Hints:
about 50% strand, two-stranded antiparallel sheet, about 425 residues, 18-stranded antiparallel barrel, 4 helices, Porin, mainly beta, globular
Amino acid sequence: MADSKQLPFVLILSLSPALPLPAYADFIADSKLNLGLRTLYYNNDFRDNSSGPSRTEELAQGFRLDYQSGYTAGPIGLGVNAIGLLGVTLDSGAGRHQGSSMIPSAGDHPADEWSRLGLTFKMKASKTELLAGTLFPKLPILVANDGRLLQQTYQGGMITSNELDNLTLVAGKLDKVTGRGSSDRTGLAVGGGREQSDSFSFAGLDYKLGSNLLLQYYHASLKDYYRQDFVGAVHTLPLGETQKFKTDLRYFRSRGQGANAAGEAGYQVSGYTRDGDGRIDNDTWSATFTYTVNGHSLLAGYQKVSDHSAFVQPNQGSLGGGVEAGGSSTYLYTDRLASNFTRAGQASRYVQYAYDFAAAGIPGLSASVMYVDSDSIKRASGGDQREWERDLSLGYVLQSGPLKGLGFVWLNAKLHSEAVANQDQNRLLMTYTLALF
């Protein structure tokens, strides 16, 4: 039997029999295989929640086997990536599992383990790369969620081109997703949507104007739900050798289309909408400023969600899989541990202080605290609501020795909200990546 490093080679060889054997030299030589380990203790106390679970508390071990090949030689290089994800329940129970967003359910109790496999074929010509299969998009209009044990994965194709200096072009289409707490693929939706869409298409560009200014534009379309335009600008102003000031401006325009615009049942967005019909009609903008000096970082910003509906990006939590299918990230500074502050009308002010202890002679140690305060949340019964969240983060990564790279992180969140149940949340993570070759 072929060993683990030969298997991807055999796969590509079977797909491309016309290529001479020397063409595969870089494919093999540039191959990498890593085993990622993540242990996560997750505790979410809902305090005074009377309509759902009062507490979720679980411990699980995650494994991520990640293979990335090089490219075959020639003007068009071929390659393949493969990923295997496995989650193993270490501690849970019926009384602590209800409402879990980390471990899938097996009947009325948590699953002992869950897993999935992904394969991505890749092709490269000059400075343009095509990926087809399992993807982990990280774009302003779509961010794969990695907030639990296993990462959310998408299925589809994406092309990235850097043929022109300072310009990156991106385009793609996705049709399936697997939630962070699931082994099953579903179609796509938004929060509140009960019907699956089979097409999320997107295109965009990043343009660097000089060394300190990045300009961005992206367009996305989720069939039968919405179309979205994003415009962003990030400017970094150096202030001497150890200081800098960053300005980050973001604007999203989202409008319903297809079944959502027609008001068809099952395609409505959750939360308040102007006419109570679940139609998507939203503008969200933010301005964030960060001052950094000698390891210290102070961030302050403001975000406003327009009144007619909530901000949207893909979220499958309302489909048949529930919280297991759900779990989404957004390209917003207010995408926090417990809330993302994207309800209709919501106005948020936020500040963060972070410190990198490398400046004090302790590399690998970092800490931060962030506070978000919001108001003007719209609700159908009239009147506005408020909510606030305070997040703490403390992390350390070993810098030397046989366990170099072993990381420890403590995350703590406190949410007080008039829109949802109050929460006190703790996450303890231990991470390590072992390079197999």
